[in-house]
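Side project, low priority. Logging it here so it doesn't get lost.
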Amino acid sequence: MAHGERGGELAGKVALVTGGSAGIGLAVARRFAAEGATVYVTGRRKAELDEAVEAIARQADGRQADGRPDSQQVDSRPDSRQAAAEQTGGGQAIGIQGDVSDLDDLDRLFATVEAQSGRLDILVANAGGGTFARLGDITEEQYDRTFGINVKGLVFTAQKALPLLPDGASVIVLSSTNASLGIEAMSVYSATKAAIRSLARSWAAELAGRNIRVNAISPGPVDTPGIDGLAGPSPRLRQRLKDGYAARIPLGRMGRPEEVADMALFLASDRSSFTTGAELFVDGGLAQI
């Protein structure tokens, strides 16, 4: 859709993307906004979240002479958890700071969505993370943190979203090819992603009577800040990690966040109206060939 047009595949829809400050989440939020949706975006770090909302707002027309969007509703107080809205090229981006593993944060998040929009047509549960650790090195703190964000955070995000989901809504959860493959030093992370796949299948059955579709996207290695974080601060180690991933992928390269966003758009739109309980891979063939 050209910038400045009003409309798009998600025109008039209300969406939430958790973990939308960077990487895949940001790409999904940008795509949804460009297609006309009002998109709520969550993140734990306010500075990164504000930057993400501004990045989405760059899709807008009619910017002020200083390059800032015409409509400034960002609450700049450091401890603020209030929404920050910017007009975009098709919809609206609204940043809400919070941690999905904190149920109080989730309550505030959905209270804001209900007060401002009254419903939620599309939920993208993207927030998550993990670190390398072999069996002998796994700590209780790492285990609790990874399951707390990836599984507990997902379960209660979906549960608290449920009253706002109208019949016919779409729920999209982010799993991973790690759930299907045996990856050294990633057992805890992989287990959380397998749990996510299982939850999607069960929820699809539970919500089918309301025509609410629940599907999982399983990306392979995607070039995001999260991949950089796994390798640490060394540019050489980062490149080595990425080269190693690319060498294992049949299509010979890592994925791009925008390619995952394309799949999310398909699942969010009416084009996937007869798809539920599915796991769709965006992995260059890694888990299939």
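Brief comment: DSSP finds eight helices and eight strands in the chain.
Revisit when time allows.
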